[in-house]
Amino acid sequence: MLPPTYQPLFAHPRFRRLLPALAASDLGDGMSVVAVAWLAIRIAPPGRSGLLVGAAIAAYALPGAAGALLFGRRLRRLPARRLLAADSRLRALLLGCVPPAWLAGVLHPVLYVVLLGGSSVLHAWGSAGKYSLLAQLLPPDQRLAANALVTSSASASVVIGPALAGFLATAVSPAWIIGLDALSFAALAVRVGRLGGVAEAVATSAPVDTGRSAAGLHLLRRQPELLGVLALTWFFNFLYGPVEVALPLHVTLDLHAEPSLLGLYWTLFGAGAVLGSLATGALRGLPLWPVTLAIVAGWGLTLVPFGLGAPTYVSLGCFALGGLIYGPFTALSFTLFQDRTPAARLTTVLAVRGAALLTAAPVGTALGGPLTSALGPRSVLAASGIATIALAVVATGVRLRGRAPGR
Q: What is the DSSP string of 252-295?
């Protein structure tokens, strides 16, 4: 049922067995998008629900940036398989503490934030280990397809996870939904632990990264292309941040619509992103940099109609198209890093990448609040689109200048 591009991937038994476990953990995280905030509301003191929701969401993501820097000296020497397993075990353990604490009546807001924050400390290393492991298990000509298949799973979780969590929450507490997320990571840890054999042999066939803790940063400085990919991705995510603030306000203030319309926007975006990710395999023969820059510009173009007062059905179509255009971006970005980074340094470099990018969207989201208050939701959505198009133009100019003869 899959396109021919993806069929060779399933000739690799270890990848074939790993993919369902990765998809299960993605689905668990998709459910936790709803459950983490909802449980925060349930346990917050009167008048403090907004603060606790913000703290819980931040704790579920941002500590990964600190973990990438604080534990680099020790973790950069570990094989990719062990990094992914360590992150999965930590998430399973600490998220798994939430349901019994809720059941015992001791889930204080501070304890809740601590458990969420602790569960995400190794997130950057776990993500780096996942994509490094894919690079080890598969030949170079199959990496783009594998990255696309894995990122399409994450995109699908945005569509399915929140809806499933909403359905389950009619019968159980959101604490138990977080417990299901913990079980999904426990299953991933078990599956990764059983890879062993070939995965470990491939990982140790290359020299281990024994440089200093800043080895990833040093390598990025010596490779302008990788630094350029990281900078482009950071600003792309940063300019996306205000959309998460402006879109809900656009629905409520500009369109005077119900929250169900907001859900429809994100459902269409997620569905488009899944299709776009799966279509990435068709881009294998194209130069990755031009395609990546075209994606950035294309996403920006889909936001401009919001500022022109386009009818709702048009803006819904634009958002779905935006998801379709955005879908291949993550897979292409990881493939560029996998292809341009020495195998011994890949995990370290990807951890640095993950730590840097964990700050991009939150900073953009924080900026989106005052901008939306000052300019209005429509203007912020259009401004985000125009700025993203400008980013693609500037990045194209920088790349062409860097490739000019004599430079």
A: IIIS---HHHHHHHHHHHHHHHHHHHHGGGGGTTS-HHHHHHHH
Q: How far apart are CA 27 and CA 21, in angstroms?
A: 10
Integer Cα distance of 164 and 228 in angstroms: 38
CA–CA distances in Å: residue 225 to residues 232, 276, 327: 10, 25, 22
Q: Which two tokens stand for residue 356?
A: 């840097």
Report d(CA 70, CA 194) in Å as an integer.
Answer: 28
362, 58 contact by CB (below 8 A)? yes
Q: Which residue has the tokens 């989201």?
A: 365
Closest CA to 357 of 249, 235, 242: 235
* No. of helices (H) and no. of strands (E), the chain: 20, 0
Q: Closest by alpha carbon to 305, among 293, 295, 320? A: 320
Q: Look up tokens 């078990």; give the residue.
A: 190
**Pairwise CA distance, residues 150 & 274, whole Å:** 10
Neighbours of 48 (CB within 10 A): 12
Least confident of 143-152, 170-179, 212-221: 212-221
CA atoms within 13 A on the CB side of 11: 8
- Scored b (16 or more CB within 10 A) or e, 314-334 reads ebbbbbbbbbbbbbbbbbbbb
Can you list the alpha helix ranges (DSSP code H) found in 279-376? Answer: 288-307, 312-326, 329-340, 346-357, 360-375
Reported as a pLDDT band with limits 50, 70 and 90, residue 205 is: very low
How confident is the model over 377-400, as pLDDT tens digits?
A: 899 899 999 999 999 999 998 887
Average pLDDT for the chain? 81
Q: How far apart are CA 18 and CA 70, in angstroms?
A: 29
pLDDT of 216-264, one tens digit each? Answer: 556 666 677 778 888 898 999 899 888 877 887 788 788 888 766 777 8
Q: Render the burial of 202-238: b for 16+ CB within 10 Å, e for the rest.
A: bbeeeeebeeeeebbbebbeebeebebbbbbbbbbbb
pLDDT of residue 299: 95
Cα-based angle 388, 394, 395 (whole degrees, multiple of 5) = 90
